[in-house]
Amino acid sequence: MTPSLQHKIAELKKQLAGYDRVAICFSGGVDSTLLLKVTVDLLGGGNVLALLADTSSMPRSEINPACHMAASMGCAFKVVQTFEIDDPIYISNPVDRCYYCKHIIFGKLIAVARANGFEIVLDGNNFDDAGDYRPGHQAAVELDVKSPLMDAELTKADIRALSRELGLPTADKPALACLATRVPSGKNITRELLKKIELAEQVLWDSGFLQIRVRDYDDLARIEISDSDFIKLADSELREKILSGIKAAGYNQVVLDLKPLKRR
């Protein structure tokens, strides 16, 4: 571990040591898994509550693994239904949809945390997120959801490196943005649309592609994959499998974005 990373970890632990009991917004991803692990090790499982927001934009395939991961940490764990999909502003999908979405989700998680005796709520935003357009983080700030990974200046690369040090199975897990990010701003978001995107992305997962996005343009699906995976598409049989699978999900046309999807 580099001196820089050691310093950041020390800063993270210093922050966490200032709390007696915390609830963590947990998704099972790289960032929140590391945060949960470090927090449980420092405060003890009895002082940590992991909260998984079961949203319409979270792939169903992610829920059970996240539940098993949280249970393996030895802390309390709850799945919280958030129903943001019923909110008219969320449905209308404005440019800052993430702000309204996170306001609803954090509000529900905070209520559950406090009902169980946990006043402090943490999320897994990292230092790289500080440089992106993240209206959802503004909602976290307004609701006093703290981001200790960001405050300790831990980047995604740092978090992956530390996760390897700790033997976490999520160290190399691909980054997963919510399914609603695949829908152009201004187009209404529905449960049916999110399911359509999820089914299309599952085709790519099942075909051995790990870093993926399927962008929705009505009847057209634009797929994004990592640079290292382009060579796989030289296989005509695999291309046909992907094409037929994505069409079965509900798209009539499938195109490939030639700009590689960057790993984070």
Describe the structure.
The protein is an alpha/beta fold and 264 residues long. The two termini are 20 Å apart. Helices cover 43% and strands 14% of the residues. It has a four-stranded parallel beta sheet with strand order 3-2-1-4, with helices on both faces. Strands 5-6-7 form a three-stranded mixed beta sheet, with helices on one face. It is globular. The model has no long low-confidence stretch (mean pLDDT 94). The protein is built from ten helices and seven strands.
In short:
With 264 residues, the chain is of the alpha/beta class. It has helices at residues 3-16, 30-43, 63-72, 88-92, 97-115, 135-142, 148-151, 156-165, 191-206, 236-249, and strands at residues 22-25, 48-54, 76-81, 120-122, 212-217, 220-225, 253-256.
Keywords summarizing the entry:
264 residues; alpha/beta; four-stranded parallel sheet; three-stranded mixed sheet; 10 helices; 14% strand; globular
Residue-averaged pLDDT: 94
Shape: globular
Largest sheet: 4 strands, parallel
Strand content: 5-15%
Low-confidence stretches: none
List the SSEs and their pairings.
Elements: H1 3-16, E1 22-25, H2 30-43, E2 48-54, H3 63-72, E3 76-81, H4 88-92, H5 97-115, E4 120-122, H6 135-142, H7 148-151, H8 156-165, H9 191-206, E5 212-217, E6 220-225, H10 236-249, E7 253-256
